[in-house]
Amino acid sequence: MGANASNYPHSCSPRVGGNSQAQQTFIGTSSYSHQGYGCESKLYSLDHGHEKPQDKKKKTSGLATLKKKFIKRRKSSRSADHAKQMRELLSGWDVRDVNALVEEYEGTSALKELYLQANLARPEARTLQKDMAELYQYKYCTDVDLIFQETCFPVHRAILAARCPFFKTLLSSSPEYGAEIIMDINTAGIDMPMFSALLHYLYTGEFGMEDSRFQNVDILVQLSEEFGTPNSLDVDMRALFDYMCYYDVVLSFSSNSDLVETFGGSQNCLDEELRAHKAIISSRSPFFRHLLQRRIRTGEEITDRTLRTPTRIILDESIIPKKYAKVILNCMYTDVVDLSVLHSSPSVGSLSEVQALVAGKLNMTRAEEAMELYHIALFLEFNMLAQGCEDIIAESISLDTLIAILKWSSQPYGSKWVHRQALHFLCEEFTQVMTSDVFYELSKDHLLTAIQSDYLQASEQDILKYLIKWGEHQLMKRIADREPNLLSGTAHSVNKRGVKRRDLDIEELREILSPLLPFVRIEHILPMSSEVLSDAMKRGLISTPPSDMLPTSEGGKSNAWLRQKNAGIYVRPRLFSPYVEEAKSVLDEMMVEQTDLVRLRMVRMSNVPDTLYMVNNAVPQCCHLITHQQVSTNQSSPPSVIANEIP
């Protein structure tokens, strides 16, 4: 879309390339190191000899299906064990106590919903529509003036030409910069406020004012006939990005000549240029807006207008790698973060690629690219791009990427929002994490945050068991670090021969686990006679037994699961799904039994005959005798038998 204006310096043309006479502005004085994290995957294969591909495929698919069945069966049996333990605990409870426990679980579940909503909350990023409304209001980098009813409306040629066929034709007749165009509108009833609302609609897709005339179908039909019907804002901005009609700025990238000479890159390739519009980049990024305003104050912009050349902005590639430039521009025009652009464009041997080759990070994962782009978005103050990168990183959280994302997001330059999503994944998938090698790579801080959560998906027995294993692994790493360099890497090293459990220093192990073990809710360890708990107590890792094992002053044992029967030892139970579901199931069964018992009692009572109709209204003779005797003997004493009472 757009007009062919030969006099205007740049109408519709491809995005790559630029004018060598353009003025130059150098950006960037500092650099940061690009850190990428990845997990090396291991591939295992079975050699079946000389087999047909079809048979080999059948066997492979059969093994995969069988493996999935085993894993599914293992998970179901594990959850069945947890349910059995909870049922055994509740077997001796009263229905009121079970109901109190279920209510506690429901309250914790409601808190979890609020907690998840709070975790997902983040500041709202400015959309393309809001930034375009601000662009129309504050008139950044306008290049043409529309005169309507003796009022001047500074606007942007590229936006109006892309949005409206009427303006596309009109602006092509006056291609010079700062041209004043007198508007002559044939549609009746169009005044200055309504014309301003029409321009606002072309910028944002909304009129921006309440006017009854916009509800008049006849006026809307006349306007569409005169101005044409524009597409949606997203479609037209995408077309403007693809064709770059009337572009007025060129982005270039500086390079390190030493690296170019070393690796054989050419200066022309490293200085590939990308075209854009000042209006768009200044409205989306305060960084670019301040830069362009500074050029206007220093008079550099006047030189560009005189020479009719686009402004050239040279960016330091050590801060903003050129490979991300198209992704950034695409997001500025469409609000979409599309990392596939990185792999669809041909390699040009840029400085960023040379640096990646030197650092061994040439093949970066999608999450690592989003992490690097996130830093650039913060530098440009482009919040929509930053939040798009956060979404990509959060979607890529898995067992393989968990450690890398936790490490990155916990750094000062990382995303706190991504960190919360990674911790949520850790808590929800803790049962899967602790049975994998990933568990031993977790830092003490991340592990501490997880076991403090009321929503951790694991039983207390498993938490205690794997915490001790994690501590033993950390202790073995310490021993390996302390051994002489002569033994390191040999067959006699700790990493090769290992360390027996009895040879581990209990004091040092206790010191490693001391920040973690207090947050294990040992009062809720099931079964009651847990070997894991007994072993931990024998080794001195836990000094005192659970409080529910201790007798109370009234005799019997206290209950740490119930709030009203706590005796000062209540501990909120975790919202562990197998326990919650089994507690609800036990409560339903108890309620059914209670209902059946009440119904049975009602049936038995209904079989007793109603004898009230057999009672005569007359007072029995025995009652007369008793009353007569009482009156004659002692009139002041009350009667001991009430008249008409049914024995």
TrEMBL record:
CDD domains reported for this sequence = BACK_BTBD7, BTB1_POZ_BTBD7, BTB2_POZ_BTBD7
- What is the name attached to this protein's record? BTB/POZ domain-containing protein 7
Q: Which UniProt keywords apply?
A: Developmental protein, Lipoprotein, Myristate, Nucleus, Phosphoprotein, Repeat
Tell me the leader sequence span. Answer: none
Give a Pfam family name: BTB
Q: Could you state one GO biological process linked to this protein? A: morphogenesis of a branching epithelium
Question: Which SMART domains does the UniProt record give?
Answer: BACK, BTB
Described by its record, this protein's role is as follows: Acts as a mediator of epithelial dynamics and organ branching by promoting cleft progression. Induced following accumulation of fibronectin in forming clefts, leading to local expression of the cell-scattering SNAIL2 and suppression of E-cadherin levels, thereby altering cell morphology and reducing cell-cell adhesion. This stimulates cell separation at the base of forming clefts by local, dynamic intercellular gap formation and promotes cleft progression.
Claim: Cytoplasm is one of the keywords in the record: no
Originating species? Eurypyga helias
Where is it located?
Nucleus
